[in-house]
Structures are given as structure tokens and as C-alpha cells.
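This part of the workshop introduces the protein records we will be handling. As an example, a complete record with its sequence and its C-alpha cells follows.
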Amino acid sequence: MKNITLTLALLFSVVLFAQEQKIEPIFEKQDNMVKATYFHGNGEVAQTGFYLDGKLQGEWVSYDKEGKKTAIANYDQGKKAGKWFFWSDGKLSEVDYTDNRIANVTTWSSESQLVKNK
């Protein structure tokens, strides 16, 4: 029984050590908006963007854990607006929003050929 308890304690401590550290976001006041920077557990920037009156506003950029850009999004008073771009598996997807709804989706492969247009 003592060995089981010791083994479980060791496994639990390894799991805790293996988890990424939580890094608190940074909020900076810029004029009438607040710039937000969120981080991955490894310290790389996860997302940057602005808040206006507590709502998402303007351009937001997302990054993966290696620092590569994965998305660019646009908000207007907390609603999805304009063109959004997503990079994944060698493809670029453009999503157009109108009135907080998807109006059009276009996807290109890394060879710059149109893959889909919905």
C-alpha cells in the first residue's frame, strides 16, 4: 500500500510539473481603448487585440505556441466584421462577415490556387 501511495504521489507531481505555466495577460490603456495581450503557457504571445467599452474592437491577431500567425480577426463593437483570415495546414482561408454573420468563405492552398469558394 505504501508503494502504491508513493507511486501515485510521484505520478501526480510529474503531471503537475509537465503542465505549462499560466501567464497572466497584459492590459494597457491606449487612448479610449485597452490593448490586450494573452500568452501561451510557454511565454509566446497567443493573442493581441483591443477592447472598447469592454467589447472586442478592431483587429485581433492569434498565434500558435511557436509564434506563427494563425488568424487575423476584425470586430466592431464586439461583433464579427469584415475580413477574417485563418492559416492552417498550408491553406489560407478568408471569411467575410456582414452583420456578424458569415457572408463568404474562400480558401487557397499554399500554391496560391483557389481551393474553395462558398
The helical segments are 2-18. The chain has one domain: 23-117. The longest helix spans residues 2-18.
